[in-house]
Amino acid sequence: MVKVYSFESCPWCNKVKNYLKARGVEFETRDIELSEEAAAECQKISGDLTVPVTTIDGVHYVLGFDKKKIDELLASA
Amino acid sequence: MKERIHKDVVIIGAGMAGLTAALYCGRMNLDTLVLENGLIGGQIANAVAIENYPGFVSVNGGDLIATVQKQAETFGAVIDEFDEIEKVTLKTSPKIIETQEKIYEADAVIIASGMNRRKLPLPEEKKFAGRGVHYCELCDGHAYDGKVIAVAGGGNAAVDAANFLTKYATKLYLIHRSQFRADEVSQKRLRANDKVTIMLQTDIKALRGDKKLKEVEVFDKTTGETKTLAIDGIFVNIGVEPNTKLFKDELTLTASGRIPASEDCRTELAGVFAAGDVREKEVRQLTTAAADGTTAALLAEKYLAKLKVAI
Fold first, then answer.
1. What is the number of alpha carbons within 13 Å of residue A55 lying toward its C-beta?
2. How many helices (H) and strands (E) does chain A have?
3. Chain B CB contacts of A10 below 8 Å
4. How many CB atoms lie within 10 A of CB B30?
5. B203 and B265 inside one domain
6. Are the beta carbons of B138 and A19 separated by less than 8 Å?
7. Does residue B311 have a pLDDT over 80?
8. Is B139 a known active-site residue?
9. What is the pLDDT of residues B167-215, one digit of tens each?
10. Which of the residues A26, B99, B240, B264 has the least number of beta carbons within 10 Å of its own beta carbon?
11. How many CB atoms sit inside 10 A of residue B24's CB?
C-alpha cells in the first residue's frame, strides 16, 4: 500500500494525493499533525518531518512532488 | 504518437489570473483548458491569511483559490496540473502547446504563468534544500516546532511567513539585505513579537552544517560586523522571477523577463494575451491579477468571434 505522510493544509501534499487519485492509485494518508505515530514513522523514513513523503516499503521514498520519481516508485512496487 | 486536441482557449498557469480567465471563458461557453506545472493557486497557495482581497476580512490562500477553481470548473473549464508543458508555438494559427502527453491546438492563448520564488543565491543552497533551507512555510514550518528559525526577505511574503512561523519558533530571525518593503500592518505585528529579532541591511553570506543546516553567517552592512547565528532552518522569501522561459523564443520579453502588454493584456502576437504578474506593469496584486484574467478572457472571446467570422 502506498503511504503519503502529509498534513491537511500542506499544498504540495495535496498535489501528491491528487496525482495518485488521478492515476487511480490507492493510498493511505498518514497525517503527521494528527498522529504522533505517523510523525515518528515519517521521521524514521526520511530523517525529518518535511512533507510530503511518499513511500511503499517504508524504506524508499519520494520527498515533495516529483512526478517522475513517484512514477518510478510506483513502477518498482 | 501524442494525441492532438483542439481547444478554443488554452490558459497557461492556474494562479488567480489564470483561474479568473478560466471562469470567464467557461461562462462564455469557450472550450477552455488550464495547464499548470506547479501548484494550483501559484504564489497564494502558500498564503496563510490574505487580508487585502475585497469581500474577505481574512482568507486562507488555499481556500480562496479552491473556490475560484470550483467556479471555473463549474462553468466547464478543465484544469490539468500534471501534464507539464514542454514547448509552445505562438506565432502560428492555431497556436500549439505541446505537453508531456498531448499536443493542444488553441485558437487563443492566455499566458498567466506568474512568478517563481527566487532561490537563495549561495553555493550551499542545493546541499541544504529540504534539509534546513525551505521555500514553503505552510508545508515545512511544523518541522521546526520548538526550534530556531530564520526568514530571509523583507517583502510581504517574507514578513507574513515570519509572522506565521512564530507559532513554531522559540526564536526567529528576520534577515533582509535592505529595508522593509512589507505592509506596515504586517511589520507592526512582527515587531510586537518578543521572539523576533529583525536584522535589516544584513546579507546572508554562508550556510553551514553537516547533513542539515546548523548555522548561517551574516554580514551587517551598517556596522560592518560579521556574525554566526545558530539556527535549525531558514525559510527563503527573497522575491520572485517571472516564469517566462517557455516563451522567450516566441515573444519579446522586457528587461525584467516579463511579457510586454498594456492594460488590454494583448501581446505583440494576435490571439496571445498576458495576464497577472507575468505581464509587465507597475502594480502586481491579487486584485490586479483577477482584473487581468477578466480582461484577457473577454478580449480573447472577442478575438475568437472575429476569427470565426473571418473563416
1. 18
2. 3, 4
3. 136, 138-139
4. 21
5. no
6. no
7. no
8. yes
9. 999 999 999 999 998 999 999 999 999 999 999 999 999 999 998 899 9
10. A26
11. 25
Q: B189 and B258 share a domain?
A: no
3 state DSSP class of B71: helix
Spatial distance between the Cα atoms of B266 and B248, rounded to a whole number of angstroms: 17
Reduced to 3 states (helix: H, G, I; strand: E, B; else coil), residue B34 is: strand
Host domain of residue B197: 119-236
ipTM score over 0.90, yes or no: no
Q: Which of B218, B236, B254 corresponds to the end of one domain?
A: B236
Residues B230, B263: one domain? no
Q: CATH number of the domain at B187, please.
A: 3.50.50.60
8 Å CB contact of B130 and A63? yes
B143 & B225 share domain: yes
User: Could you state, in order of their start, the residue ranges of all structural domains in chain A?
Assistant: 2-76
Q: Would the CA dihedral through A37, A43, A49, A50 be positive or negative?
A: negative
Of B62, B136, B143, the CB nearest to A48: B143
Sign of CA dihedral B101, B106, B5, B81: positive
Q: Are residues B79 and B211 in the same domain?
A: no
Domains of chain B: total: 2
Question: pLDDT tens, B44-58?
Answer: 887 888 889 999 999
**Choosing among A4, A48, A65, which should be mutated to test the B contact, i.e. which has the most B CBs within 10 A?**
A48
Among the partner residues B81, B130, B139, nearest to A10 by beta-carbon distance: B139
B262-295 pLDDT, tens digit per residue, is 999 999 999 999 999 999 999 999 999 999 999 9
Window 115-174 of B, Cβ < 8 Å to A: 130-131, 134, 136, 138-140, 142-143
* CB-based contact, B209 to chain A, within 8 Å: no
Please work out, in degrees rounded to the nearest 5, the angle formed at the alpha carbon of residue B115 by the alpha carbons of B114 and B117: 155
- Catalytic member of B31, B80, B83, B136: B136
Query: Which of A6, A7, A9 is the best mutation test for B, with the most CBs of B within 10 A?
Result: A9
Task: Among B187, B211, B236, give the residue marking a domain's end.
Answer: B236
Residues B133 and B222 in one domain: yes
